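Renewal narrative, Specific Aim 1. Our central claim is that a sequence can be written position by position from structural information alone. The example that follows is taken directly from our test logs and has not been curated for this report. It begins with the structure tokens describing the chain, in the order in which they were read.
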């Protein structure tokens, strides 16, 4: 009986691992295809010969992206929005989630209902635009930060994690005369690094990929972030290349230029993610269990 069970477990592991590999390849192959196009020469790209590896190593598309477009200016805007937005969002989310994790907090249920309501219903584009205009935030960096300051889902993840912290840990600090803010800063946050890192990734990726709000609220070229730059560059590739000298235009395929632009825009976030991945997995597991 044990042999049969062990054999079935081994087959389950084999099938499970095979499915994981297949799903991983499905997710990875499109990225490899775009990367290969960005590094291939014009003839190979134009002839649809590129699959998942470069043909005729060619870096002209990347040189053009870095030297003749607004890539670095847009990257600076996105980095500024991501860093400031993530820091503010984490601060506000933690400060809101901590009191809401306490059952004796007055007004807890109505406030939670408001957050749930905001998850289910959205005021609309026009009211949002009128609000941002009334606040004087149109065509400013803050127009890309304020709408995403507190995401209700992230707040509930943080609140659930705080609820799992034993009350005895905080009670001992209260006996010693520590204030709620001191307890949060010195006791709760140090043991909450997994969920803080998880929410940091959520917010950072959200700000980094934010396209909708800049499209509506930003009109100045100098304030357009990376995702808006990416859309406009890909949509106007032919016009952009037509403005270049023949030596540049004839040495680079439009598809190769688009691929190089896409790869350049996602590399920074890919470089940061591996360092926080372990916190991401741990934080999601701990934040999903209520103590």
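The sequence written for that structure reads:
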């Amino acid at each position: 009986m044990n042999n049969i069970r062990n054999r079935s477990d081994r087959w389950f592991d084999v099938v499970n691992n095979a499915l994981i590999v297949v799903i991983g390849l499905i997710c990875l192959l499109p990225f490899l295809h775009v990367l290969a196009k960005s590094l291939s020469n014009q003839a190979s790209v134009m002839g649809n010969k590129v699959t998942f590896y470069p043909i005729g190593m060619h870096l002209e598309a990347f040189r053009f992206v870095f030297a003749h477009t607004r890539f670095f200016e847009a990257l600076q805007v996105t980095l500024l929005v991501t860093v400031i937005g993530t820091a503010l969002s984490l601060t506000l989310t933690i400060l809101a989630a901590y009191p809401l994790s306490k059952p004796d907090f007055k007004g807890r249920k109505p406030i939670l209902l408001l957050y749930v309501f905001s998850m289910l219903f959205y005021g609309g584009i026009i009211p949002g635009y009128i609000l941002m205009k009334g606040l004087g935030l149109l065509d400013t960096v803050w127009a890309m930060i304020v709408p995403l300051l507190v995401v209700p889902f992230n707040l509930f993840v943080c609140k659930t994690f705080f609820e799992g912290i034993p009350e005895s840990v905080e009670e001992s600090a209260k006996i010693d005369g520590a204030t709620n803010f001191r307890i949060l800063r010195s006791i709760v946050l140090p043991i909450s690094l997994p969920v803080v890192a998880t929410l940091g990734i959520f917010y950072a990726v959200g700000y980094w990929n934010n396209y909708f709000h800049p499209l509506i609220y930003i009109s100045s070229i100098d304030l357009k972030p990376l995702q808006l730059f990416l859309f406009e560059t890909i949509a106007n590739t032919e016009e952009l290349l037509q403005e270049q000298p023949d030596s540049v235009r004839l040495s680079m395929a439009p598809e190769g230029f688009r691929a190089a632009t896409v790869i350049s825009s996602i590399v920074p976030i890919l470089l940061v993610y591996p360092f926080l991945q372990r916190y991401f997995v741990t934080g999601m597991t701990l934040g999903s269990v209520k103590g």
